[in-house]
Amino acid sequence: MPTLTLTPLRADGVSVRYGDRRVLSDVSLTVPPGARIGLIGENGAGKSTLLRVLAGAETPDSGVVSRPKRVGFLWQEVRFRPEDTFAALLEDALAEVRAIERELEAAATALAGDDPAAHARYDSALAAAEFAEVWSIDARRDALLDGLGVGAIPLARRLDEVSGGQRSRFALAALLLGRPEALLLDEPTNHLDDAAAAFLEGQLLGWHGPVLFASHDRAFLDSAATGLLDLDPARSGTTVFGGGYSAYLAEKAAERARWEKQYADEQAELAALKHAVDVTARSIAWSGKVRDNDKFVKSYKGNTLDRQISRRVRNADGRLDELTRTQVRKPPKPLSFSGIPAGFQAAGEEAGSLLQADGLHVPGWLRLGRFAVEAQSRVLVTGANGAGKSTLLSVLAGRIVPLVGTVQRRRGLRVELLEQDVRFADPTQTPRRIYELALGERRAEAVPLSGLGLIAARDLDREVGTLSVGQQRRLALALIMARPPHVFLLDEPTNHLSLTLATELEHALGGYPGAVVVASHDRWLRERWAGEVVALDAAAERDA
């Protein structure tokens, strides 16, 4: 039986610049067949850009990319028209598979002729068809849709008739159904619950071709990745770490310490060399008092000392030139979340809940008896996709009015919601201007955006539409943190955020002076949650 020869996914010296900002600089990597490399880095480090370049969706300014013939790319956001149906989405994903089927039929027909290359053509077509599993498409489609939790949705449904998470899971199922030779996935677990994430993990573990995925999901990185590629600034280009996320944390800290020590040692040596060349050499002189009859001795000793001084200066100057050329650059200061601004006024300590919902019913999305938020509540809302987690937060924030039920809020209570999907009305506005307009000049000056550690200085005056999804969500978080609410609602707070920021945000929420309600499928976060847990049941709404 002929087999398909799988090829690696490669990038050599890839650089990408947007205007005056370099996003990727001389990135090189190789992902061999069977490897599953997790792509990590700060928001805006270029993870999505690199995936687009490797997929052929974007052309780099310099560098070379080589890829297998069929590459599947999962975008962060589903790139289909709202009026498209799920059936159309699936069929579009199968376009290359259908072409393989047609080629196999044509190659089989050619065997009847006298073309000497017909057998080689048929063997090649058969190998491609075997790899794509063309004879089991229907069964695999049903298994994929069920495994990702969307098997019950009719294929005739339009994309604008379901949630964003359901659209994303359908897109992922369609991609896997096409059986590409290589997989490029941008945040594949963003909308997956535990069962769906475990199913995807199983799919990747059995994938024979190269897999490269960008993810904020620490548990998924730990379990699915064979190695991690860190796009954060390193001494020279990208850094590859073997193993999962836990191993990465330890090695990342050790590498940072080695870098900082080498930089400090080299700067100290540079200072000493400059002193030797600029000061010490000039101050050394033979100072013996010369008598009239010692002119020969003076000449002899003076010339000897001059040669010694000259040699020392040359040695120091040579080493100075060499070290100046080869010194490691200064480790960049990491962008670090500064936490909750000072001066927060918590809600009063009088008896009763800050916020209470009773008998909620939002048809098709949520049914819940009672939900209360106290002054210092720490509530984690869990549940499978479709259980109504996002709907509950929107009801509590006053953005959705339930068909049945009541929501009571304490007078003067400020409630804010960090949504999953952030959209700014004017993409040409800058983060600095959006911040000033939202808070007012006085508050923006008292709590400057740059001081929150969420937006890098270089991005403050860029158009918000040019920022990555993660950077835009950082800005949305900054708008809330600058004026902390009494009740802070966070919908999948670790989605799209860098691993570092996700960890820092979790720590900050532990000491938040108000009430916190988090809806999340993040296994890493949930395993470490110390507060109350409310589990929603999707069946409660379906059975109503």
Write up what this structure looks like.
With 544 residues, the protein is an alpha/beta fold. The chain has three domains: 225 residues, Rossmann fold, CATH 3.40.50; 70 residues; 188 residues, 3-Layer(aba) Sandwich (Rossmann fold), CATH 3.40.50.300. It is 41% helix and 18% strand. The longest helix has 39 residues. The model has no long low-confidence stretch (mean pLDDT 84).
At a glance:
The protein has 544 residues and is of the alpha/beta class. The chain contains 17 helices and 17 strands.
What distinguishing features does this structure have?
single chain, 544 residues, alpha/beta, 3 domains, six-stranded mixed beta sheet, five-stranded parallel beta sheet, 17 helices, flat, repeat, Macrolide transport system ATP-binding/permease protein, nucleotide-binding, ABC_transporter-like_CS, coiled coil
Look at the structure and name the CATH superfamily of the largest domain. P-loop containing nucleotide triphosphate hydrolases
Instruction: Please estimate the helix content.
Output: 40-55%
**What's the alpha carbon Rg, rounded to whole Å?**
31 Å
- CATH fold call of the largest domain: Rossmann fold
Q: How would you classify the helix and strand content by structural class?
A: alpha/beta
What's the SSE blueprint?
Layout: E1 9-18, E2 21-31, E3 36-40, H1 47-55, E4 62-66, E5 71-74, H2 86-93, H3 95-110, H4 118-132, H5 137-147, H6 164-177, E6 182-186, H7 194-205, E7 211-214, H8 218-224, E8 227-230, E9 239-242, H9 245-283, H10 295-326, E10 355-362, E11 366-373, E12 378-382, H11 389-396, E13 404-409, E14 415-418, H12 431-439, H13 441-446, H14 469-481, E15 487-491, H15 499-510, E16 515-519, H16 523-527, E17 532-535, H17 538-542
Parallel strand pairs: 3-7, 3-8, 5-6, 6-7, 12-16, 12-17, 14-15, 15-16
Antiparallel strand pairs: 1-2, 1-4, 8-9, 10-11, 10-13
Helix pairs in contact: 2-6, 3-4, 5-6, 9-10
